[in-house]
Each structure stands twice: as C-alpha cells, then as structure tokens.
Design brief:
3 helices; alpha+beta; three-stranded antiparallel β-sheet; 8 strands; Rhs_assc_core
Length: 212
C-alpha cells in the first residue's frame, strides 16, 4: 500500500515514504526510517550523521603503537612523532641525535607526566660534510608518561575514553581539528583527521598553570 499523509521528515516528496524502510515496509517496523539498523546494513535518515562513529575500532591499538614507536619524525621533520612513553622518547632522542635542553618539567597534579624540551639536529645534505650535524632545529616540547606509574594499557584506555568524549564536540563543530578533554584528572588533546573526519589521536598534555 501507499502512505497518503505528508512525509513527516520533510525530506522527500511523493507518496512512497516507505522507502525510508529500505522499500520493505512488511519486514521493517520503522517505515519512517527513524531508527538506525546497522546490522542490516541500512540506516535511518536520523543517525547516518548524528550516530556516525568517529573513533575507529582500532583506536586503542593504534594509540598504543603510536606511544611506543621509536625514532619516527613528524611530517615536517621538526619533531619526534609519537613516543609519549618516556622510555620510547629517550631512546628516540638517542637514535635521532637530538638533544634535551633545559630542565624537565613535572607537576604533582599529574603523577607520572614528564615534559621535555628538545631539539632535532639539522644535517648537511651533501658536500664534504654530508650527514654531519651543522646546527639544531627549533626547540620542541614532548609530554611523556613514566610507564612505571602510568602503564601503556592505562594510557591507551584513558585516550580511548577521551576520544569518545570528544565525539559530540567534533560532530557539532565539524571544522575543528583539536579538542581538550580531561580524563581521570589528566588532560588529553584529541585530534581529528581532516581527510577522513575520524578521530586520529588522543595524547597526554601538560597543561598551563591556570587550567584547573
């Protein structure tokens, strides 16, 4: 049969509003398409955007790998990528020839966190000094965690919860790429991939003093 009342969603014209139920109003109890039915491979009109999962299923394992990776540089080669695990960071410093500058910073409000300042070396690309350090790049900061106080698993779990807390913010602010979230008393910076729209990371940060 056909529905003769106006489309309540106000999206499609015509008489066939049953198409919101996958054109099967007999087996689908939701002829208006208001219920998300992911296991059937079909979503209602509401839910396709509002309920889209922004945190990948591999997020915990991805974050764990990122935190423990050694010797990787960021895309601009100005800083050490990942290595938020303190042991991984110190090994990365040694591997890349970087140097730690200034005192390390700790805060008793955030047990286990250590912030370092460091510089990567700039090496001659060619000539008689090719490969040799000719100067050091600008000072970068890295917030690390002591795995003896905050285990890799604990940090990954907190990162995952931070990412999930940030989902609604990114849905409501689709043009934003970063958001700060507090989990178990620790601050995380949650980032979103501009190309995929998915949350890509949530890493520990040492906040400035006026953040309570």
């Amino acid at each position: 049969g056909r529905y003769i009342t106006q489309d309540p969603l106000g999206i499609l014209g015509g008489l066939n509003s049953y198409q919101y139920a996958g054109s099967d109003p007999i087996n689908w109890i939701d002829p208006l398409g208001l219920i998300k039915v992911a296991d059937k491979g079909v979503e209602g009109i509401v839910g396709k955007e509002a309920d889209a999962q922004l945190v990948p299923d591999t997020f915990v394992s991805d974050v764990t790998t990122h935190n423990k990776q050694i010797g990787q540089l960021n895309a601009k080669k100005t800083g050490i990528s990942g290595a938020h695990n303190q042991d991984a960071f110190l090994e990365s410093v040694e591997m890349t020839g970087a140097k730690i500058v200034g005192p390390k910073h700790t805060d008793r409000r955030f047990p286990g966190l250590i912030e370092y300042q460091y510089q990567l070396p700039a090496r001659a690309a060619n000539g008689p000094n090719a490969g040799k350090i000719i100067r050091f790049k600008k000072v970068e900061k890295k917030t690390t965690y002591d795995p003896a106080i905050l285990s890799d698993a604990k940090v990954a779990d907190m990162s995952n919860r931070a990412a999930k807390q940030a989902e609604n913010y990114f849905r409501n602010n689709p043009h934003k790429r970063e958001y700060s979230v507090k989990v178990d008393g620790y601050w995380f910076t949650v980032t979103k991939n501009q190309n995929t729209g998915k949350i890509s990371n949530a890493f520990l940060t040492m906040p400035i003093r006026n953040i309570k």
